[in-house]
């Protein structure tokens, strides 16, 4: 029973190769609101399974989880499709929730997972905005968004930074806390995962915003939408600093 | 009043927000907000520094209970003053320099954010604040260097900087976590007290806590301060705007020296780490200087010059001269900032020049002026040797009877000697119609350099490390066996003397003759001109890793 529960949890708190299921599902879904809902609900199901089954998580699973996070972070570096990029990042990030679930922080893990999901939700909305304008959302396909859609580019850059654990945002404090709960091997794995996220984020940003203005000009997002995104990101940063940061 | 240090980073942050919000309405005039608040920041930093100098006690001011604190101490106030001063100059320079560039407001926002992060970094009172600032400096620099968002190459090279910085962040995070696990606190003061009381504390696998943490911090410092082999990002960042180059070379790249000074209470309990710092610094200084010689692009040459200077800075901490490293980074910051800001003018001047080399023949035939006299090389070589020996013996008789026995003091004089001789060599190349006046000026400059090094080092030591015992412990931690020390100093002195003599002799004998270069020399030049193939090596590694990631994605069907 325990093994079955761990296996089930490994689907929702993605552990390789069960993680492939989540990415395959996400690849099939193009409806943005469904994707957004999945980003919020999926890890919560995994945490719920672990909480209800009261399993003592063995050390090797934690190392497996960290390896999964590192593996997807590495593969993330060459992903160009925004939708796929978001789901790979989700897989890499959520795998780290095993570290919290194995500690005395299982209850807080729910909130940590929630704050992890917010940048992914925002990215999904931004990807949708691109698809409606250009018919696709690939880094490098059009480029020059900083010239053509400066407001969109600004929001996109900050969201990508938030999702890849830039200070102030919840994922930064989550990484520090996860490191505190770790052994030296795990610390190094977490560090490398973080490094790979940054590498991937820089390539992603470069592919999206850098370049001359595209010939096929598209309208920028509205000022109201920009303010709305800004408020969400500021609230996220405050929650990161005061709530997740307060756990340190 | 001292509590103002807590709010000091808030000022540039407010400036960034106001600049962003008002840039649409105010246009180019928005830079005045940035400059006004930067001036206020500088004034407050000067006041805080003055308070510190006048004896206000060190203190820590907190917002939160576990983390979120700022330290009021000599290192933080001194560096806050330097950072706010240099960033103010850069902003004033940028007002006109960036006037034709797109994203004018964004540039000032980023400069403000950078100033806030740097001040936060030098004054952080706990490890979380330090990590936040340490990380943010890398992120903001990435966007500053890639300010021209139409340029793929600017972003490509700013990525090199970003990823090297992130590589250096990882050991810093692990060091912070190990310290937290050992002490249960993020506070730097609590950690330093713990280490002072438990210098032999161990961490995982029975490793010494101080040695492990110091090595990790050292690696982090190497990445930030462009030590060999983590240096390649530095000379390739010239696609960024010149004011950013100035800020980076004047302030940001100095983070390695600052962080090692911040963790001095930990480094003082190490055995071999400082020796490693010395070796890495030495290699970096030599390679940086050699690579600089082969550059024809002025900004890239300055980049390699900075690398060499950073090598010297790390060498200094490796020798226990922690406060001298701070003096060095401030002095280097000021002159390198000026050099970068002037580089644009030099390039403009070069464009306007007709390009005809004004050698002796040119001046004699075209300008109808006879060549000026150059000093005899033997006199210059003798000055190089005699002045430091006189200063050394004067110090022995007038300052301290055991001066000659002190490793630290000898090393400082050694640095003064090397620096002074460089100055001497530069002036030797000059020609003057009044050679004796030039020689008098040279001797005077040399004395100023050698004595200046000693006096300034003493002043910085007294300010940053007023506890004489602690200062002696730092030198002791860096000290080596006396026999080895004398041998090393002698060998180095002989190598340097032979080098100088050869240069003087070659210049005086073969100045106007073409020489045939040997095959070995040409191969060495090829190696240097390819920058020791380091960039090719990293580019190839980058390509291979990305190809592997792509292959994995194909194998696993992109799931």
TrEMBL record, chain A:
The keyword Transmembrane helix applies. The chain crosses the membrane at residues 6-26, 33-51, 57-75, 82-103, 109-131, 152-173, 185-205, 226-247. Keywords: Membrane, Transmembrane, Transmembrane helix. This is Uncharacterized protein. It comes from Thiomicrorhabdus sediminis.
């Amino acid at each position: 029973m325990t093994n079955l529960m761990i296996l089930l949890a490994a689907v929702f708190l993605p552990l390789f190769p069960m993680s492939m299921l989540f990415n395959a599902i996400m690849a099939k879904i193009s409806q943005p609101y469904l994707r957004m809902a999945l980003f919020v609900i999926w890890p919560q199901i995994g945490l719920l399974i672990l909480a209800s089954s009261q399993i003592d998580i063995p050390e090797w699973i934690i190392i497996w989880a960290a390896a999964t996070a590192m593996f997807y972070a590495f593969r993330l570096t060459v992903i160009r499709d925004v939708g796929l990029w978001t789901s790979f990042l989700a897989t890499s990030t959520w795998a780290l929730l095993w570290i919290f679930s194995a500690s005395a922080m299982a209850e807080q893990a729910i909130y940590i997972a929630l704050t992890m999901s917010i940048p992914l939700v925002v990215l999904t909305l931004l990807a949708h905005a691109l698809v409606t304008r250009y018919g696709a959302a690939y880094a490098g396909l059009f480029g020059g968004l900083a010239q053509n859609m400066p407001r969109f580019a600004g929001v996109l850059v900050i969201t990508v930074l938030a999702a890849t654990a830039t200070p102030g945002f919840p994922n930064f404090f989550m990484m520090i806390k996860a490191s505190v709960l770790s052994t030296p091997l795990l610390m190094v794995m977490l560090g490398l995962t973080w490094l790979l996220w940054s590498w991937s984020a820089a390539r992603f940003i470069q592919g999206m915003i850098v370049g001359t203005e595209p010939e096929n000009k598209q309208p920028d997002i509205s000022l109201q939408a920009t303010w709305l995104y800004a408020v969400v990101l500021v609230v996220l940063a405050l929650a990161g600093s005061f709530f997740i940061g307060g756990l340190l | 009043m001292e509590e103002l240090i807590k709010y000091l980073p808030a000022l540039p942050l407010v400036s960034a927000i106001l600049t962003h919000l008002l840039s649409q309405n105010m246009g180019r005039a928005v830079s005045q907000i940035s400059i006004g608040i930067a001036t206020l920041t500088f004034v407050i930093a000067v006041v805080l520094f003055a308070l510190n100098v006048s004896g206000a006690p060190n203190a820590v001011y907190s917002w939160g209970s576990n983390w979120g604190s700022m330290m009021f101490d000599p290192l933080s106030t001194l560096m806050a003053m330097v950072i706010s001063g240099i960033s103010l100059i850069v902003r004033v320079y940028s007002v006109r320099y960036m006037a034709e560039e797109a994203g004018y407001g964004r540039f000032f926002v980023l400069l403000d954010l950078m100033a806030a992060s740097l001040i936060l970094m030098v004054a952080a009172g706990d490890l979380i604040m330090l990590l936040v600032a340490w990380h943010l400096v890398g992120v903001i620099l990435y966007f500053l260097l890639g300010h021209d968002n139409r340029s793929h190459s600017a972003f490509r090279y700013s990525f090199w900087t970003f990823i090297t910085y992130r590589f250096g962040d990882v050991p810093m995070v692990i060091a912070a976590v190990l310290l937290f696990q050992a002490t249960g606190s993020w506070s730097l003061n609590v950690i330093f007290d713990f280490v002072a009381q438990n210098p032999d504390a161990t961490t995982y696998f029975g490793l010494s806590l101080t040695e492990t943490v110091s090595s990790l911090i050292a690696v982090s410092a190497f990445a930030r301060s462009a030590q060999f082999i983590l240096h390649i990002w530095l000379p390739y960042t010239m696609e960024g705007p010149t004011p950013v180059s100035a800020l980076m070379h004047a302030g940001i790249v100095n983070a390695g020296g600052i962080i090692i000074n911040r963790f001095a209470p930990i480094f003082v309990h190490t055995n071999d780490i400082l020796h490693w710092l010395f070796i890495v610094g030495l290699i970096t200084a030599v390679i940086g200087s050699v690579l600089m010689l082969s550059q024809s692009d002025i900004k890239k040459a300055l980049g390699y010059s900075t690398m060499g200077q950073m090598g010297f800075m790390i060498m200094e901490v490796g020798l226990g001269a922690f406060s001298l490293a701070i003096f060095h980074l401030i002095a280097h910051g000021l002159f390198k900032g000026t050099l970068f800001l002037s580089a644009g003018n030099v390039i403009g001047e070069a464009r306007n020049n007709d390009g005809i080399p004004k050698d002796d023949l040119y001046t004699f035939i075209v300008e109808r002026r006879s060549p000026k006299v150059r000093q005899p090389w033997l006199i210059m070589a003798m000055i190089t040797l005699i002045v430091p020996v006189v200063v050394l013996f004067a110090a022995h008789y007038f300052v301290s009877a055991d001066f000659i026995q002190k490793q630290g003091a000898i090393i400082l004089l050694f640095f003064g000697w090397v620096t002074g001789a460089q100055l001497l060599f530069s002036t030797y190349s000059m020609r003057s119609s009044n050679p004796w006046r030039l020689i008098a000026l040279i001797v005077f400059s040399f004395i100023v350099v050698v004595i200046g090094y000693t006096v300034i080092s003493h002043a910085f030591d007294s300010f940053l490390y007023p506890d004489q015992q602690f200062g002696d412990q730092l030198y002791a931690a860096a000290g080596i066996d006396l026999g080895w020390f004398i041998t090393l100093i002698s060998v180095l002195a002989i190598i340097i003397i032979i080098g100088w003599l050869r240069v003087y002799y070659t210049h005086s004998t073969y100045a106007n003759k073409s020489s045939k270069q040997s095959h070995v020399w040409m191969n060495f030049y090829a190696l240097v001109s390819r920058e020791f193939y380091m960039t090719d090596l990293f580019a190839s590694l980058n390509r291979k890793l990305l190809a592997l990631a792509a292959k994995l994605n194909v194998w696993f069907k992109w799931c």
